Each structure stands twice: as structure tokens, then as C-alpha cells.
Amino acid sequence: MANHASGDSTSALYETDSDGNAILVFQDGKALAPNDEVTITYGDEKGACEMLFSYGFIESTVGSARELFLDLHIPDDDPLKLAKKAVAQSAPGFRLFLHDDSTDWESSFIWLLCANEEDGLDFELLQNNDGERELQASWKDEEITDMSNLVTLLKQEALWDVFELRATTVLQRRVEQQLLRLEGSRNSVNELLIIGEIDNDIRENAMRLRDLEEILLLHAYGDFETKKCQLLESPVVQQYLGTTMTENPGVSEDDFS
Q: Which H/E stretch holds residue 39?
């Protein structure tokens, strides 16, 4: 057993030896005097949500949600929706996280939302040697065996800025939806607090998580807006939008995705 401390106060960590046993070792550069307390960290890089879920509390030293995961849905009017869902190999969403002084994100799924049949994405139902059918995805006639490689193929395209703008727009809208959801539930949450049937520690941790995630979401929304403005200055994007709006007069930049 070891007590907990965060940051530079952590003196030890658990590792696994050659036999698979957990062993407690000092961190590099750490030394203890007799009777000093041995401490470990619960995970300085853990997001506030993960810490609350794993341990039932959020450390007082945590000043940011650090990260969160938001789900994504393929629109119902996408004619390839069922095929995209069938070949998707990653969680249907994106990880939003704090990186230095800005936010960043990770997702393989988003590119399935941003590539369509007219771009070059196609699906074919094939029959293998065992007589079983399988769905095969391809990009401009090139077979895709790992859907996480779709983004690599898109980056090779002259219209990469367009695909990136699509992704940025979709992700920003999802962040906006989450912010509206938090704001829309505020009255219901306040009513629960007034009733007073919730344990004080639970209430404080839940409200703190809401506040931390709202700050991260607002930060991300601003970063997405900055990125979107940069991409709209791209000659590739401007030419694409000009052609698109000429061919489809009802389409606006605000409905780009």
C-alpha cells in the first residue's frame, strides 16, 4: 500500500518485473529519509472524468478537465451510412484534449463522415473463398484494409484542405451541441441541488466536472473557429466553395459540412 501525492510530491511508482509481479520502485531522482512517506500518483495525466469515474473524486490540484470523449453520428441522409458503420474500426467519436496552451483532438471515425461517394469513397460486397460475403471499402479504386488509413489517403489529395475543413466544421458543431446540452440542463441540475438529497461530496465533484468540461469545450470551440478561418483562406477551399455554390445556389459556407 502507498499513499497518494501528485506532481513533484510523488516519490514512487508501480512497475512490472520479469515475472509479471507488481513492484514499487522510486522515481528517477527521488530519495527518501527514514520514516518519510512513500507516495504514488493516481495519474497526473488522467482527465477529470476518468479520475472521478475511477476513484470517486477529483483532486483539488486539477485545474482542467484535460480531456473528454464526444460521440459522433453519421447523418441519416448519408447514402453510405450503413456501409460506413459496418466498416468502422474505431469508436464513433473523437477525443478532445488539452495540449500545452491549446486544444487538440484525435479520431479516425471523423474521416468517414467527411468522405463521400462523389469524393472517391466506395464500397463493394464481395464473396470470399468460403462463400461468405464481406464488405470491402476502397478509395478511388484502392482497397482500404484498415480504415484508420483513410486519413492518410485523404492527405494525399489536392482537396485535403477541403476534407480538413469538413472535419473541423463537424467537430466544432459537436462541441457546440455539448455546450448547449450543458447549458440546457443547468436548471434541472440546480433543482436537484435545492432538493438536497444528494451527498455533498458527490454534488461538489459532479458540479466541478461540469465546470471543468465546460471550460475545455469553450476553449476547443474557439480553437476550431480559428482553424476554420485559416482553412477558409486556403485557395483550394475558396475555389471549391466557389464551384460548389455556383452549382448549388442554395448551399452556403455555413452549411459546408
A: strand 39-40
